[in-house]
Amino acid sequence: MTAAPHLLIAWHSRTGGSEALARAAAEGSETAKLVAADDVTPEALQAAGGYLFVGPENLAALSGAMKEMFDRCYYPCLGKLEGRPYATIICAGSDGENAQRQLDRIATGWRLKRVADPVIVNTAAQTPEAILAPKTIPADRLAAARDLGAALAEGLAAGIF
C-alpha cells in the first residue's frame, strides 16, 4: 500500500506568532511535516502532496525569509508542482492583504490550487514596541489553524485534492 501524500507546512516567524500558528496547524495532522522556511528545499516541496504556507507580513510584504524560500525553490520546482493544493496563514500587524497577494502570485506561477480561504491573523501591532514584541495568538485563532491543518491533511489522505 502506498502512503498518502503528506502536507508540508512551511513557516517563518520573527516574533512567534507565525510559528505558533504553524505548530497549531501541524498538531491537526499526524502526517504533516513542519519545516522552517530556511530549511525548505525544492526536494521537500516536490515530495509533498500539498502545502500550508505560514508567515508574517513585514512592511506590507512577505517576510524576507519566506520570500527567500520561494526565490530558492521557485525555478527548481517550476513545472513539477502543478495542481497541488495549498492554503495560507498570514500573521500581520495590520491587514496582511499585500503579503497574501504576493504569496498567491507565487502559487499561481507554480500552478498550485488554493483549497481553503486565506487566513489572516491580525495582531494589531502598530507601534515599534508592539511590532517587535513576542506575539501571543488567541486560542480561537490557534484552533482555526489546527482545524485547517487537519482538513488539509485529511483532504490529501482521502484523495479529495
Describe this structure in words.
By secondary structure, the protein is of the alpha/beta class. The protein contains six helices and seven strands; from the N terminus they run E-H-E-H-E-E-H-E-H-E-E-H-H. It is globular. 40% of the residues are buried.
What's the structural blueprint in terms of helices and strands?
Elements: E1 7-11, H1 17-27, E2 33-36, H2 42-47, E3 50-58, E4 61-62, H3 64-77, E5 85-92, H4 97-110, E6 113-114, E7 119-122, H5 128-132, H6 139-158
Helix pairs in contact: 1-6
> Roughly how many Å is the radius of gyration?
15 Å
Beta percentage is 15-25%
State mean pLDDT (0 to 100 scale).
95
What fraction, in percent, of the residue positions are helical? 40-55%
Low-confidence stretches: none
Number of helical segments? 6
- Can you write the helix and strand succession as a string? EHEHEEHEHEEHH
Categorize the overall geometry. Answer: globular
**Using DSSP, what is the number of strands?**
7
Derived from helix and strand composition plus strand pairing, the structural class reads: alpha/beta
Euclidean distance between termini CA atoms:
19 Å
The largest sheet, given as strand count, sense and whether it forms a barrel, is: 7 strands, mixed
Key attributes of the depicted protein:
single chain, 161 residues, alpha/beta, 6 helices
